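Your task:
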Amino acid sequence: MNDLTENFLRRAFSGVILVIWILAPYILLQQFAIREIWWLQPTAFDNAIPINFHSLWFYYTFYLLLGVVGLFIERPVYLRYLYVIGWTAMVAHMIFLLLPNGLSRMEIHLPDAPVYYHWLATCDAPRNAFPSLHVALSVVAGIAACASKRFNLAAKVGVILWILGIIWSTIALRQHVIIDGIAGMIIAIIVWLIVGKVSRPELDS
């Protein structure tokens, strides 16, 4: 087994572990609440973005984005990337637990929605909206790509546009409101900075 294949398998394995780390608590926390659920209300900004079911395909590329960035960044950036994703997900899960919240889908007329949206609505209950994990982890991927020397300017711009598309899709599908996205961005940036400070020797190795 050559080094390239071994590196790919290691990163693929760690990626699978991270997906489990992200999804298992997320799904569990959709099933119960320790207090009354806080239902978020759309702002004028959110209402200005029309519902677009086709944006679902952008929404689903979230996991592809995390994987692509994770495969191509260099090892020190990759290690920081893993830690930040893990801690960011944990912070979000703690907020979901202590401040149960959701976003109603009453605005969406389900009979008019395509089959692929029904699949999303069936698998993902309208809970765990604040903060947006989609936005938070996409921003982590964007920061990692921008910090990597392996991504040239065109690739970095492409990643940023990709992230903007994902953020748009979260609102266009009424999965989130803008406050969810802002909270996710703030958490991602803070965790990235903290991990960089407390783990500097290991991440530079």
